[in-house]
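General statements about sequence and structure are easier to judge against a single worked case. No coordinates are needed to read the tokens, only the vocabulary itself. The sequence in question and its structure tokens are set out directly beneath this paragraph.
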Amino acid sequence: MIHKNNVLTYGIALLACVALWAGNVCAQTPSWQKTQEVDLTAFRYTTEISPHQNEVPTVLEVPIAVGRVLNKTAVVVGDEQGTQPSFYISNTERLDVPMQVIVKGAVNANNLSDRNLETTVDFPFDEAGTNKISITVTANQQITTSELRLVLAPNVAHPHTIALYRISQNLPKIILAKTEFKGSTVRFPKTTASTFVIEFELAQPLRLAEIEFVQESEEVRYEAVRFLAQPNTNYTLFVDPDRQYGTISSQGMSLADDEGVVTVGEGVLETNKLYRPSDGDEDTVSDMYDNCVSVPNSDQVDVDKNGRGDACDDFDRDGIVTIKDTCPLVPNSDQRDTDSDGVGDACDEEENRLTERSPWIPWAGMGIAGAVLIGLLIISAGMKPKTGVQVETKEDKVESL
């Protein structure tokens, strides 16, 4: 009994030690590792915020470096608190001239200038055709600009090429000759005009959230993030996501009221070490630069140099992308593959079925079967059954004696 009691005691002590160790590990685990509500790898920048000195929950306001953040959205994570609702402030003196976006055939083109990342415009895309789109941006008076900003919807690659024009006396004048599109910002020589035309060539479907010519008359005054902070709690601020990251309930809390707000920190943003650029097909190439956004192709091979990777191209224009086409270079929309060797009948030069490689085999088989049948008939005919079989009886044996 004593031995059993000792074992029980040791077992309880071991469980207690494990529990203490686990508690210590959890206490030392960074708050972002305990956060499951949002994808923190979507955010480009981060900054640490020290605890405030108040004894009650207080709304803190953290200034953000102006001009660095593209998508003005933030998430706050607190030790033992998880993700917290936040409010992004962007006070801008709107001295710039309002501009209207016109896209032929699109009824919701103004979504591209409403400063709302949730509203987007889809552009038609023909797998078999040449995909060129033209976007006109106009103002009621001349503006001066040298920079164009584009915000892509999540999991979308940028256009293949871009060209910019200004309209002068109803004629287009080149600002930027057609060039390969890279990044989300296009810079060009300073230009003054009231109407601009943007021409894109697409290699993949395009969905845009915002288009903006940055005007020299625009003056940004202040940007900051507000959130409700608990006493004696460290927080980490994550800013500027490149894709959808999840949702956080505000629990009915309002952070727009200026009363009782305490400004803290300098808002110096550091690169988020957790950041992983959006990569919908998980081929290690970020969506913005991926020539096949929806099909994994880490090699990015593009034989015909059309900006669309071979993995999602359709060379023979039969409606089947190369990676799925049983005959990538020969039209075969039916995808028929009689011998199931992965090569369509339309381009299969060597059949894998034995009878198709050697058509004499069926005839030889039938010949052999016929010869065997004839032989069996001959053998059967030559065998005569024995008749009058005599059986020796006991009487016969006695007589023989």
